[in-house]
Automatic annotation (TrEMBL):
The lineage of its organism: Eukaryota, Viridiplantae, Streptophyta, Embryophyta, Marchantiophyta. Residues 46-164 form the PLAT domain. Keywords: Signal. It holds the Pfam family ATS3. Residues 1-23 form the signal peptide. InterPro entries: Embryo-specific_ATS3 (IPR010417), PLAT/LH2_dom (IPR001024), PLAT/LH2_dom_sf (IPR036392). This is PLAT domain-containing protein. PROSITE patterns: PLAT. It comes from Marchantia polymorpha subsp. ruderalis. The keyword Signal applies.
Amino acid sequence: MMAVAKFALLLVTLLMLTHDCQALEPSSGRLEEDEAPVVATSYELCIYTIVTETGKKTGAGTDSAISLRIMDKEGKEVYFPALDNGNNDFEKGSIDTFSLQGTCLTRFCKLILYTDYTGFFPSWFVETVSISLVIRGNESQKTWQLHQWLPKEDDATSPRFLIKDDC
């Protein structure tokens, strides 16, 4: 059994050595747009902090289940089904914070929000979505200014998703 553990450790070490990892300056602590990213290995998991801001318009809050997908320029993605922090999420004028685990993406640039369009108030007016994560001591963050309905209740033809692509 000890030989298997040593072999696994050796394999992980070799994978990390052969992976093209770049590091930020230790003093920066924050990943800026023009800096080289800290490269996550394909098996690393990160804790994402997702912050949503619901608008203050009449009917802005929703009882629907909201899901979120983020992607990077290479098409790698992380999907978070049914955002739920145990509170009454997505109420008019509220800011909700979710801490979720997923595969590490350090240069995410595309956001897709989904609604299941259920509940008494199925539409949602979302102002902003911010996503951040820390990987090996360095923070990566992106905020999308949305200011729109997902979907508007009186428009049956509205899609039940919203895409913001900054890639």
